[in-house]
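Q: Could you predict the 3D structure of 3-dehydroquinate synthase?
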Amino acid sequence: MAEVRVNLEAHSYTIHIMPGGISHVGALMRRLPLGDKALIVTDENVCPLYAGTLTDSLTAAGFTVAMVTVKPGEGSKSLTAANAVFTEAISKGLDRKSPIIALGGGVVGDLAGFAAATYLRGVPFIQVPTTLLAQVDSSVGGKTAVNHELGKNLIGAFYQPNLVVIDPTALETLPDRELKAGLAEVIKYGVIADQNFFADLAAAAAALLTREPAVLATVIGRCCELKAEIVAQDERESSLRMLLNFGHTVGHAVEAVGGYSEYNHGEGVAIGMHAAGLISKGMGLCKHEDVEILQQLLSRMGLPLTAPGYSPQALISYLQRDKKMESGKINWVLMTGIGQVKITREVTDSAIKEALAQIT
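A: Sure. Here are the predicted structure tokens for 3-dehydroquinate synthase:
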């Protein structure tokens, strides 16, 4: 078992990384000042795998448990799904000390977190992520949101969890495609903050793809440490935390153009990181070799580099309503080398168009 502390003064919390951790959630929650009612939010894929174990853990700890199960996929990050969570919470009499628990991947975490942030103006929130992407990224840091038909994550709040319990053994049931999607976010941490970690990932690629438990646990822990360090310095993404958006600007556009069904989030981020690398090279910020190294690792992890058949103009239309836009310009996160990035708004249209032409 490992622990990572996210230091945010009054909003600080602990990430517990422990094999079999789902069966210990109830006991860990009892250390917190919570009420006796709890609401689990999960999806139809995860529910039959882990909801019983979590429910038993909560019941043994004295909680009365309710549950909302949504359809898997990006379509459940919606106001309609959030309303279903609110309805269940109200009907079961959840009060301001009643926790909402996210059991699932990034979609479930974002949905449950948004509901927790807004139900009764805020109730306790517990993250129990079951995908690699959620374990290394979306469950930590307090970003919650639902989508709008005009863009991703446009309706949301910064709302920190009270507790995160990461059970690496849950990855044993994760489909290969979803494992690889999580590896995209893992690679991101190496690019933005830790050259040595990036090199370690390249050496451990085979072990990660075959889900060696010790390697996965080490990688998850390092990603959580890196994110905790960044979030502790910039909780609400006013400056430093923007670095975590590397690859996400174009990545979100790729997801949106595909109707959130052709490419999942990690695949979109992989394509977006490739695009960001190409823009960086086009702007003279990094060497050609840096982009090649990134391309090679993404490919080794089985991730896409391009979105064939997509229209650059369609991608640009989504870029123009990116939530990171300020005064008509996007805050781009670009590479200056492996392990180093910078935030800039001074990116030429020609560099963007040239990169988009190479990924479509």
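Q: Anything worth pointing out?
A: Residues 213-233 form the longest helix (21 residues).
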